[in-house]
Design goal:
- By secondary structure, the chain is an alpha/beta fold.
- The protein has twelve helices and 34 strands.
- It has an eleven-stranded mixed beta sheet.
- The protein is globular and about 80 Å long.
Length: about 550
Amino acid sequence: MSDQKVCANCSRNFRIFPIDAEYYSRIDVPHPSWCPRCRHLRRHGHINDYVFFQRSCDNCQKPFVSIFPAGSPYKVFCQDCWYSEERDDKAQGREFDFSRPFFEQFDELMHEAPQLGIIGMNNINSSYSESVANCKNVYLISESSNCEDCSFCYWIQKTVSTFDSCYLHECEECYEVSDCFNCYNLRYSQNCTNCSDSYFLDNCKSCSHCAFCTNLRQKKFCIFNEQLSEEEYRQRLAEFDFNSYSSVAELRERFFQFIAEEPRKHLQMEQTENCTGDYVRNAKNCRSVYHCYDAEDCAYGEHVWRGAKDCFDANTAGRDAELIYESTNSGISSYNVKFSRYCWGCHNTEYSNQCKNGSNLFGCVSLKPKASNCILNKQYSKEDFASLRKQIKEHMLETGEYGEFLPLSISMFGYNTSVSFDDERLERDEVLRRGWKWEETAPGTFGKGTLQAAEMPDDPFAVDEKFCSEVLTCESCMGNYRVVKHELKFYQKHSIPLPLECPSCRQRARLNRRPKKELIDTSCAMCGARIETTLDPETYAKIYCRSCYEKALY
């Protein structure tokens, strides 16, 4: 029997299933008081992945790009200073005060210990990117690794020469593409595998030289799912204007109307066993997970991947992460990490932030790699650590703190610059009413444009490198932006129209086109069987179960 609860944040009902209760008992934590959706929102409220500010390092004073604005109340270091051997990571250590709540003391330590102003590892010429590793020549990308010559992307892996895309794996020369694997020279497409040299594809596999197609398998020379000869294809394709921004916008809407009437797979699930969620691949026994692959026995998470096992309520847990609970971006062989943020390679760690390869940590912030047996950045013997940790957990159970992730009231970021803002777009007054933070410093500049959107040339070949000195005005947020030289070169190489929106607005529009991370009960439009989907049944006429969808494939 499942236990019915009421979410302490949104007041909606949610269930604690027996498999959940067994997990909470095994890792010795109380049952959560927030529903899965609100827990996800709370974790994302502690992440800023793609809002960048120009500022100076609080240690060396050198200018750099950061996810913290100038004037932030936190002590923000550049990478050189944060990783410096001279930095004393125990300087802010303090005794735990049992007369005060834990979160209050942890918040004080978060303000005093230096925060890493931009997160990355082993990168070359990639300063303007957040949470990237092993990348070269990347610009304004985040949550990515092993990529080269990419710009304006989110969550791409092993990808080369790709712009304005998200959720890709081993792709090359792509533009405005999402949720694709092993694709080449693909544009304005989604949910494709092994496709190339095509425009506007959806749910296609092993296709090339196609345009405006959905649900195709191993096809060439198709337009709107109609099979053509190579000559007919090239003649028809020439009738479409892909060089014009306004024309591409019209073609995008036309394609959306087309796929809205075609069969839709209820969920993006590939090679799964006993799984629920969406965008799940090569996974087993994973429940309510979104963007999950190569994982086992995980639940209520997002970006759970590459060997993740037994991870519940984890956002970005991978590379052999195990027993990660209510944490964000804590992977790379991490084990038994709870209620933590950016703790890579850590073991037996709770309520900690930005610690690397540590063990037996509780309430620690920005410790150097291989720290152990520390509480609030103060060093203890192994025996004293275990005894004090037990006392603090008992204290937190009495105050109602233990078992809850870090409150949004102590997030380092304003809600409007966090990833939560894309999950649930709340207004400033509502955010402040809830006791959360709002970032008043807008990133970038406003009112300094030298060229308005109405004056922008439609054709990328109508400009030269001098155009890169123009200050443009985003038609959505009215913020200023530029087309940089390597960006213009990419547009001209692929005959892509110049963008009328800044990179941040393009990113948010791209992510908003993906389905919401919430399952909807409905029925298969063909056989009537009960199914779950993240698609809107009011928008798509033919949402099919897996069996009916496979029968309907072209």
